[in-house]
Amino acid sequence: MSAVIAGVEHARDARAVAAPARVALLGTGTVGRAVLARLAGWSGTPLGTRVSLVHVANTRRVLADAGGLCPRRAGAAFHARLAEAPACGVDALQAQDAKAERYGLVATLGQLGTRIVIDATASEAVAGQHAQWLAQGIHVVTACKLGQGTSLARWRAIQAAAAHGGSQYGDSATVGAGLPLLRSLRELQAGGDRIHAVAGVLSGSLAWLFNYYDGLRPFSAFVRAARVAGYTEPDPRDDLSGEDVRRKLLILARAAGVQLEAGEVEVSSLVPPQLAALSAGEVDAALPSLDATLRERFAQAWKAGGKLRFIARLERDACGGAQARVGLETLAFDHPLAGGTGTDNRVAIWSDRYREQPLLIQGPGAGAQVTAAGLLDDVLRIAGR
Ligand SMILES: NC(=O)C1=CN([C@@H]2O[C@H](COP(=O)(O)OP(=O)(O)OC[C@H]3O[C@@H](n4cnc5c(N)ncnc54)[C@H](O)[C@@H]3O)[C@@H](O)[C@H]2O)C=CC1
Ligand SMILES: N[C@@H](CC=O)C(=O)O
Questions:
Q1: Assigned superfamily of 181-364
Q2: What pTM was computed for the model?
Q3: What's the ipTM?
């Protein structure tokens, strides 16, 4: 290659490397707000040059600018009147009709370069779009478990669409709020290990509840506090019923090579039928219906000299089958899965190399900041250097 051509190629490479990934954020609640705050903190740093936020939407409004939005101003625009948002050099913040959001999103992301949708919603409709975006070559980074943690058909569609579109699916934040759980399972298998079993606490809110519930104050008051702290799902019954943990266990199992259907996970719910039957708006007033049963469960565990922990278990047998279950257990105080504090998830993984003593991974398993960091770690991995 001549020096001139090599120089042109080099300049082209340098431009390709420098082009920021174009990012759309869906959801501006607990997690989405923290994503915007973290992006705002990157302004003027090398990390800030690697991503360009072009689209932000929630259920009510959309802000889009193909030239790039200011994350700080976008955050303020969603949580204060636009006029009060401090200016930071963005000329064209456009409020669009939220109904046009899906089409607007793909158009604003454009056709070229690295395009990423961050899903910080708990929306079934948005999860239903993941495979379509991936098939178009748009990467998806998600905190929402409804993509990979529901039906096996949807999980397979996501894998197939990513392969077809040459796109990546960033799922670190779906289990353990970004703890290196999925990554560890994948790396163990890439190194030739078979995963034998996984067990532990996979819910940050339930960890927090059973770390602090004292059997004296009403359990329902702790549920309200966990919701205010941003640890629960938008509807706390998704946590209390074990549904959120079922989804996480399905995501882990499938990543471990066990293609379970949702119905194959045995789930013991903490939600009584009368609470399960209510509309979302009626839930808060009815939370005290949890109190008597939980007080009794706590007293029994205390008498037995143990602690309550909401545990997920996946056990593989030698014939290729697997058992999966989720529910409240009484564990001895010194049980390896009973430790941790706050929202800590604590998960043990048994594999070929970790046969007797499992690999243990522990850390905060819910919360806006850790989840936003997990999402943006995936964004940076996809955006490249
Ligand atoms: N809160 C936490 O600690 C963690 C949450 N997650 C997941 O993150 C997701 C978001 O959780 P939160 O922020 O706590 O919920 P949230 O209820 O605070 O926020 C949800 C946001 O999504 C928006 N939204 C809903 N449907 C939409 C649609 N069709 N298009 C655009 N926006 C839409 C809502 O307007 C709202 O802004 C959930 O899937 C949750 O499971 C994952 C790990 C930890
Ligand atoms: N509601 C979830 C949030 C993270 O996924 C939990 O409690 O773990």
A1: Dihydrodipicolinate Reductase; domain 2 (3.30.360.10)
A2: 0.92
A3: 0.99
